[in-house]
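Inputs:
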Amino acid sequence: MQIPVIRNVLEANEKKAEQVRARLRSGRILALNLISSPGAGKTSLLERTLRDLGGTFRMAVIEGDLQTTNDAERVAATGAQAVQINTEGGCHLNSDMVSQALDKLDLNGLDILFIENVGNLVCPVEFDCGEDAKLALLSVAEGDDKPEKYPLLFNLAKAMVLNKTDLLPYVSFDLARARAFASKLNKDLRIFELSCRSGQGLDAWYAWLAEERAGKLHGR
Amino acid sequence: MHEMALAQSLLSMAEEEIARCSCSRLLMVRVEYGALAGLMPEALRCCFEMLTSGTPHAQARLELVRLPLRLRCPFCGTTFGEDGEEDSDARNALAAHCPGCGELFGHIVEQGKEMLLSRIEAV
């Protein structure tokens, strides 16, 4: 028997993601899904942000990690709530994992939830976790052609952070090239050049977070 | 690397569909995927075989159809696409100027992100 069907292969994940999104919306919690290759500085960006904005916003982190709890410990050391998801080799977080992690968090009065995905520029992009926006993180210690190699992430992301700019004098990363290609893929992409180590450029990132949070609060 | 999760989802959807038609054994499953969907066909095939071997669906064939990238220029409305069928062709098209007006930015992906279960054969 021939059975014609048109169903999205990822529909189960997307259905759950909508439930997560509704739950976060009812608490007016801004949720950002951080995606980068391993070592680009997702945890460092979170550590800085949690410390610097800890007095302004209530924030929590869902940490995706293949094996260890190292990142969750670093985040917890800032005083923010952190829940660890060990994917045990799995290359991405999905909406069901995030839904279960939400059960372990105190969502009362929470302003911003960061979902730190597993370090990988391909797989996490396909799996909606119920976030408001994906954030692409790239460090200047990597190739400036990353947006060309992994177009879907940069097409779908709302913002891109170019981290480790303090290393620019020592590497051959072409900021203009990375920016140009990412902008071609996504003309509305907000781009932040910053260094979590020196602190340079963080203000613009913080201002954007505050804007996004205000948008969420007012239901925009 | 995420192909195992895709194969699991695919198989459970296909089983759901054939149960609705009172069939019990899959013969063919067709997936249409966009050029930007990040799918590795060989990896998906391999995962699909791992999941079906030793089950009633062991003979099921996985048909993978790649949907070429199609872009639309928001300024002049021209639609254009890739020249070949490789991922590099899709990337080149993404980096190209609009053939209608030359605009470089803002091209809208009309086709290329899909991942669809589109046809099943079963007995």
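The longest helix of chain A spans residues 11-26. Flag for discussion at group meeting.
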